[in-house]
């Protein structure tokens, strides 16, 4: 399940997670953000229990975008043990995203 996080829930739902978390920084006006949303929902089900997928609307929570220096949307940021380990900017096919996640987690 893809869960929306806010300024109030980010630390609990992302930084304190027991498993890696892929955060989708997006905005309503961003066409590529809408393009990847169904794919991220699929991945949330497929990866359930191994990688959590969370969404942050940067228009509603600009402080989080600023905190992680989000300059372009969509930006997918992978957090492991509360630390950002990789940022992926722009839409990409599912197979490529899975490969990038696998590579980042195997370091």
TrEMBL record:
PROSITE patterns given in the database record: THIOREDOXIN_1, THIOREDOXIN_2
Single GO BP term: cell redox homeostasis
Domain of life of the organism encoding this protein: Bacteria
GO cellular component: cytosol
Active-site positions on this chain: 30 (nucleophile), 33 (nucleophile)
Keyword Electron transport attached: yes
Domain called Thioredoxin: residue spans: 1-106
Annotated site residues (Deprotonates C-terminal active site Cys) in this chain: 24
Cystine connections: 30-33
A GO term, aspect molecular function: protein-disulfide reductase activity
Keywords: Disulfide bond, Electron transport, Redox-active center, Transport
Site feature (Contributes to redox potential value) residues: 31-32
PANTHER family: GEO12009P1
Family (UniProt): Belongs to the thioredoxin family.
Protein name: Thioredoxin
Organism: Jiangella aurantiaca
Gene that this sequence comes from: trxA
């Amino acid at each position: 399940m893809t869960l929306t996080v806010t300024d109030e829930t980010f630390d609990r739902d992302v930084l304190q997670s027991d498993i890696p978390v892929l955060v989708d920084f997006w905005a309503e006006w961003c066409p590529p953000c809408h393009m990847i949303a169904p794919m991220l929902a699929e991945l949330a089900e497929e990866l359930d229990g191994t990688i959590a997928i969370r969404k942050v609307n940067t228009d509603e929570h600009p402080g989080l975008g600023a905190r992680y220096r989000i300059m372009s949307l969509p930006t997918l940021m992978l957090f492991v043990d509360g630390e950002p380990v990789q940022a992926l900017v722009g839409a990409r096919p599912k197979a490529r995203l899975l490969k990038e996640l696998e590579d980042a987690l195997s370091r």
